Amino acid sequence: MPLETLFLSDDSSLSFVGPSLDEGPLPALFYFALSARDSLSLGPINHIVSLLSLYPLRIFSLDLPGHAPGDDPRDGMDHWANLLQRGEEFISAFSSRVEKALNFLFHRRCLIEGKVGVGGLSRGAFLAVHLGARLSLLNPILCFAPLTKLDQTPSMTHRGVVQEALKLNLENLPSSLLSQTLRLYIGNRDTLVGTMNCFHFFHALVETKFHAGHRSPEVEMILFPSVGNQGHGTPKSIFEEGAAWMATQLGCCV
Fold first, then answer.
1. pLDDT exceeds 70 at position 120
2. CA-wise closest residue to 197 among 128, 142, 145
3. What angle do CA 212, 216, 220 make, to 5 degrees?
4. Residue ranges making up the domain that contains 19
5. I want to staple 33 with a disulfide (CB 3.0 to 4.6 A). Which of 20, 24, 124, 188 is the partner?
């Protein structure tokens, strides 16, 4: 899969795989895991990208905060904690970068309104949900092994920013996700991000949607037998299921 990078400004770039932008508007997925390049090209985190590349759509990505090329992704959460220590609203800044990319692509007539999804893996899923809450045109939202409680990560404790991180937990977002369709996948014993943490977010979102008048809230949480370190892995079969769901949501067929 050839990867292309577009430079939107001196400090912002956008990478994608799929048909050339010259081919006009197509459905799209914004997908996040680590850096843009790794999200789109590094296995196994890019399994969904490989699968969706069979469909007539484009998959876009940007570097997560603290995950530029050359950065060690193991230091990524420490970077987020340092940003919170300095009082920097890194999620707002990241959302602005994504919004700039969306505006660029709409101006180029590369997107179809109503057919732009967002998804992510682990910390990328955490940011994908925040993006969906801030940018309503990003719908549906697909999450694999999502981080939901930022305050419980060791980096936040070590840097003394638990209270700041607590405000960013996904359970604070349900009222901003009333119009979004979500699917969450997680192992049945994920001890890294917490299966129960994911359920608490799922339950809060379902209840909020129901009490807002959604009698059949479009939110799913799908469990599978945990694999990998701390049960945090995602098997290829789950990526396949998620890819098929996203393709259907975006109205794509092979």
1. yes
2. 145
3. 105
4. 1-248
5. 124
Question: What's the CA gap between 101 and 173, in Å, rounded?
Answer: 23
The side-by-side arrangement of strands in the sheet containing 182-187 is 4-9, 12-17, 58-61, 26-32, 111-121, 141-144, 182-187, 219-224
CATH of the domain at 187: 3.40.50.1820
Q: Is residue 254 a part of any domain in this protein?
A: no
One-letter amino acid of 61? S
Please write the tens of the pLDDT for every residue from 233-242: 999 999 999 9
On whether the CB atoms of residues 229 and 192 are closer than 8 A, the answer is yes
CA distances in angstroms from 96 to 83, 102, 138, 145, 218, listed in the order given: 16, 10, 13, 25, 27
Closest by alpha carbon to 202, among 104, 194, 95, 139? Answer: 194
Residue 22 has pLDDT above 70, yes or no: yes
pLDDT for 12: 82
Tokens standing for 219? Answer: 């939110």
